[in-house]
Design goal:
Spore Coat Polysaccharide Biosynthesis Protein SpsA, Chain A; two-stranded antiparallel ribbon; 274 residues; alpha/beta; 28% helix
């Protein structure tokens, strides 16, 4: 079994102010998604599906040809699935839009994050050993915080190595005294708190679950221009209902990402020797 890598690259990059998916962060001009493809292939991934939107499809395809000539790539446009809307319908809808291109258990990552190498190996091994279970690759909170500013993270409540609850937590920032605090919900967090950065491993059956959830969600939110059908929310609902067991895989790696333009230089410095 060779899992498929699914890279979500259809976002608008509103806070960043441009096509964050293709911004150069590597020493040879690589984007984050190039590291994802390279590291996933080294871990044993087979096919690669990149989810984009029509507006950037040609640019992404041109970039991928330059850096990943031999990769078995398929591009899917999220905006060609579901009702037309300026803002993409969310990460769970992104996966649903690519369902026809996914034929094996699959690993999902964001196109604008660097996850390191360990997470891909952990996900591949978990899908092979536990083919009916999902997995979330979790990172130590301290390994995901920017030098300046606050962030949102999915805080994992872990029981016996399994996800017990996923709490979307906002306004997380390290204070001057070294304490990590959040605003919503308010609280303090240890450096080794496990958080999700949207790196998942899924059995193929999850596609059926997402499809079943999509139509009721759309009926309730169709007229809301900013509502999103989000993958973490769907996964947590399935877990809470006892329909999906989610293993928590702890990555030792440093996560790197960019939210604003000010994050670019630190990201490039972190990836300079990769």
């Amino acid at each position: 079994m060779s899992p498929t890598l699914v890279v979500m690259a259809a976002g608008l990059g509103s806070r960043f102010g441009g096509t964050k998916q293709l911004v150069e962060v590597g020493p040879r001009g690589e984007a984050f998604l190039d590291f994802a493809i390279r590291d996933a292939q080294a871990a044993g991934v087979g096919d690669i599906v990149v989810i984009v939107r029509t507006e950037i499809e040609a640019d992404v395809e041109r970039h991928l040809r330059r850096f990943n000539q031999d990769a078995p790539l398929t591009l899917v446009c999220q905006d060609r699935s579901g009702p037309a809307r300026e803002k993409p319908w969310g990460t769970a809808h992104a996966i649903l839009s690519a369902a026809d291109a996914i034929e094996e258990p699959f690993i999902v990552v964001n196109a604008d994050d660097y996850y390191g190498t360990a997470g891909y190996r952990l996900a591949v091994d978990s899908l092979a050993a536990h083919p009916d279970d999902a997995a979330v690759v979790a990172f130590r909170l301290a390994n995901t915080l920017p030098q300046v500013g606050s962030v949102s993270r999915g805080v994992c409540r872990v029981v016996d190595g399994h996800l017990h609850e996923l709490v979307e937590t906002h306004g997380i920032e390290r204070a001057a005294d070294g304490t990590i605090r959040s605003e919503d919900p308010p609280g303090e967090h240890a450096d080794d708190t496990m958080v999700s950065m949207n790196m998942w491993g899924f059995p193929l059956s999850v596609l059926e679950y997402i499809e079943a959830e999509w139509e009721p969600w759309l009926a309730a939110h169709r007229t809301e221009p900013k509502s999103e059908f989000l993958l973490p929310s769907v996964v947590d609902e399935l877990r809470a209902a006892g329909r999906l067991d989610v293993r928590v895989l702890e990555s030792p790696d440093q996560w790197v990402g960019v939210t604003n333009r000010d994050d670019l230089d630190p990201a490039r410095a972190a990836l300079a020797d990769r």
